[in-house]
Amino acid sequence: MNLNTLKLNQEKGTLFLTLNRPQVRNAMSLEMVQELCELFDGIEKNSEIRTVVIRGEGQHFCAGADIKDLAEARKNMTMDPSDHNNPIFKLNRAFGYLMTKANQTSKTLICVLEGAVLGGGFGLACVSDIALSLEDARFGLPETGLGIIPAQIAPFVVLRIGLTQARYLALTGVRFNGLEAARIGLVNSTAKNTIELEEQLQQILQQVNRCAPQANATTKKIMLKVGSASLEQLLDEAALDFSCAAQGLEGQEGTLAFLENRLPNWME
Predict the structure, then answer these.
(1) CATH number of the domain that 221 lies in?
(2) Residue 143 and residue 157: Cα distance in Å, rounded?
(3) What is the pLDDT of residues 20-45, one digit of tens each?
(4) Which carries the bigger pLDDT value, residue 87 or residue 248?
(5) Are residues 182 and 231 both part of a single domain?
(6) Residue 73 neighbours by CB under 8 Å, 6+ apart
(7) Among 80, 109, 113, 208, which is most exposed with the fewest C-beta within 10 angstroms?
(8) Residue ranges making up the domain that contains 97
(9) 64 within 8 A of 118, measured Cβ to Cβ
């Protein structure tokens, strides 16, 4: 890919993805959203990538949407705001497509959070499988304070931390740190400094790599269906998934490795 807003580095089965607009605290431009969407589409076809780690260049993860894009879209408004073809609708909806792709990726998605984690950056944290944060990172949903709404983010915030907490954060715009983010279940763990944060990331990557990649992907698929299908239907589908896993290459290799007291081949 020809990338202007992202940096990529692949190490074995892990793709390190860096949001690369440090001059604006990695605010998400439409170009960045489009590049991220292309990237998530591409990695679904790449069996060598098992884990994606997202972080921000410089001292910030992401300060939200680039307001300049909204201003430009507003200039080009020549139709009713309720028309689905208007440029502001398209701009906002593009981020929703990104959120869905990131949420549903079969890869294990890890966010490493530092500095500003606002708006769109907050949203990305909410669709991660694992989120690690500095204690002094700054979280918030500032949209309503700007007279706009966290339209594409709000549903994922509710799914992540529950309706009560989501209402409070969105309707007050309150800022809070990584420790509070851990308390409400937004992040999984916090670190006092960048050295400790890096150590936590390496530990998590080691733990994820102990798990079979297809087993992880299928487990994630089952979990994401909770609430969107009846429980009995979901359990039927999960039993079929289990049957396929047990008879598949990973299931056979995992069982054999256990019996032979060795590591399975996906850990080599």
Answers:
(1) 1.10.12
(2) 14
(3) 999 999 999 999 999 999 999 999 99
(4) 248
(5) no
(6) 87, 88, 90, 91
(7) 80
(8) 6-209
(9) yes
